[in-house]
Structure formats: C-alpha cells, structure tokens
C-alpha cells in the first residue's frame, strides 16, 4: 500500500521575551527545505493587534511592539490583505497563544527568513520533483475495490491536469512509479516560474500537506475545493477507515488539521500572488 503520512514536528523552540516573535524549525519539505514550526503554546502577552505600512511593506504590531521573525527580521508582508489575515490570527488567540494554529504566520516567517537559503529555481525544482512520487499517480492492484476507487476518484484529476497544462502524466502500479516525461516536468517548471518567491513557499507547503503536486495545483487553480483535495489525498486512509473503522476522535482531528493547513497554504498563495495576477490580467485584456 502506498500510504502518505503527515510529516512530524521538531521539538518546540523557546521564544525570546523582549520582542514578540513567532517561529521555530520544522519539517522537511519536498525538496529538503525546512519550514518553521512554531512552539506549541505561550501565554498571551499583548492586548491589541494592528497593522501599519512601513518602507518594506505591511507590519504587524502587538500593542506598541513590532512583530519579528525567528531570525529577528522585521515581520513585513507584501500585501495589506495578507497583513490583515496574519493580524487576525494573532487577534483570535485567547489567554494562550496556540502557535500551531497560526499557519499564515508560520508561512510568512519561512518566506522572510528562508532558513534553507534556497533560490526561486531550487523551490520550483523541488516542487516539480514531487511528481515522481505524486500520491494520485501511485495505484494498487489489490484489493480490487480500492483499485477501482483510485481509478474513479484519481483519474479525473489526472485527466484535468493533463488537459489544463497540455502534458502527459499517467499512473502506475509499479514501485518505481510512473515515467513522467521530461517535457511534462519542464512545463510545470515554466508554470511555477510565473509565481513569486512568497507564493512558491505556499505552494511547497500545500504540496507537503497533500503529498501531491497535481492535487495542489488543482486546489490553487480553484478546480477542486479544499475538502475534495484532502479527501483525494487521503483516499486509501478513508477506504481503510470505512472498512475497519477508526480510532475515536483521532480521525476527525487529523482530517480537520489537514484541511486547515491546506486551506491556509492556498490562501497564502492567493494573497501573495494577487497583485501580479491582476497585472497579468490587465496586460492580457
């Protein structure tokens, strides 16, 4: 069985007290990149959250202190919409700050600090490399019911991607996986190159959650919903649960957490590429 498991977290990191900071080191992404995973919880130390515009973009203020990244850089985001979304994460925290619920803040920290110092092409190549182990391309031969389920549910999204990007992808039951043509990979490289560095960090995050470039692009392109993307990424798990049952509460928690991460990553991509998308549309018109 080809089962994709969520990657784990590293132990929580301690935050410095003088300056409000969120972040830590976390799971390895598809290209070996490490994203920030914040510490688990901390007592809320601020009353009000606001945003302001500085020279480098929009900043987040916790009372009268400016938020900074784990590497002590000024936490600055490129769009007002993203700043509002991040500020909402901080403002929605109650007596205790639950950093593990603040996915947008974590993604911004990763984009700002770039802890692995990868450039744009390295991010793109890492994302495209995931095609070689894409969840929806690996199929089983037995049991027959699961094989049929994979065909019925995964074939349409593969067919959509092949038509959308004019490429050949296919699927395989071999342990070696499908033979992805070099032209297909280069097409995805060219497509991803149209995104900026911030958006690419978000795309990589979504791919890591869904274990699939194809599902991630379907989600980001608004072809499928978050719920559908997550269901397709967990098809084998859902099949086994329907057959054997599930651990009480654990399944629902995992499902909700994966939906939250996929949704946050997709929102991050849209908020980071909004202005460039509008400019591109205006040029096309």
From TrEMBL:
This is ATP synthase mitochondrial F1 complex assembly factor 2. Residues 1-36 are annotated as: Disordered. PANTHER family: ATP SYNTHASE MITOCHONDRIAL F1 COMPLEX ASSEMBLY FACTOR 2 (PTHR21013:SF10), ATP SYNTHASE MITOCHONDRIAL F1 COMPLEX ASSEMBLY FACTOR 2/ATP12 PROTEIN, MITOCHONDRIAL PRECURSOR (PTHR21013). Its main location: mitochondrion. InterPro entries: ATP12_ATP_synth-F1-assembly, ATP12_ATP_synth-F1-assembly_N, ATP12_ortho_dom_sf. It comes from the Eukaryota. Interacts with ATP5F1B; involved in the assembly of the F1 component of the mitochondrial ATP synthase (ATPase). Interacts with FMC1. GO terms for cellular component: mitochondrial inner membrane. Plays a role in the assembly of the F1 component of the mitochondrial ATP synthase (ATPase). It is found in: Mitochondrion inner membrane. Belongs to the ATP12 family. The keyword Mitochondrion applies.
């Amino acid at each position: 069985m080809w089962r994709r498991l969520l990657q784990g977290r590293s132990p929580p990191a301690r935050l410095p007290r003088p300056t409000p900071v969120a972040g830590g080191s976390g799971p390895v992404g598809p290209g070996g990149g490490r994203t920030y995973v914040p510490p688990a919880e901390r007592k809320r130390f601020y009353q009000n959250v606001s945003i302001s515009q500085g020279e480098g973009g929009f900043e987040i203020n916790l009372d009268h202190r400016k938020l900074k990244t784990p590497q002590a850089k000024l936490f600055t985001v490129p769009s007002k919409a993203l700043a509002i979304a991040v500020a909402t994460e901080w403002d929605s925290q109650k007596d205790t700050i639950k950093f593990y619920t603040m996915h947008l803040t974590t993604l911004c920290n990763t984009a700002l600090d770039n802890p692995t110092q990868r450039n744009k092409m390295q991010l793109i190549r890492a994302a495209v490399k995931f095609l070689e182990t894409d969840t929806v391309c690996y199929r089983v031969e037995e049991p027959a019911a699961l094989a049929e389920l994979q065909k019925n549910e995964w074939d349409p999204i593969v067919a959509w991607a092949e038509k959308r990007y004019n490429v050949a992808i296919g699927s395989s039951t071999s342990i070696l996986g499908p033979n992805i043509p070099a032209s297909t990979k280069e097409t995805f490289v060219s497509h991803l190159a149209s995104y900026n560095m911030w958006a690419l960090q978000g795309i990589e995050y979504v791919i890591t959650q869904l274990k699939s470039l194809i599902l991630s692009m379907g989600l980001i392109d608004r072809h499928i919903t978050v719920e559908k993307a997550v269901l397709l990424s967990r098809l084998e798990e859902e099949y086994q649960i329907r057959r054997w049952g599930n651990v009480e509460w654990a399944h629902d928690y995992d499902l909700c957490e994966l939906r939250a991460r996929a949704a946050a990553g997709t929102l991050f991509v849209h908020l980071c590429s909004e202005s460039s998308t509008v400019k591109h549309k205006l040029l096309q018109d």
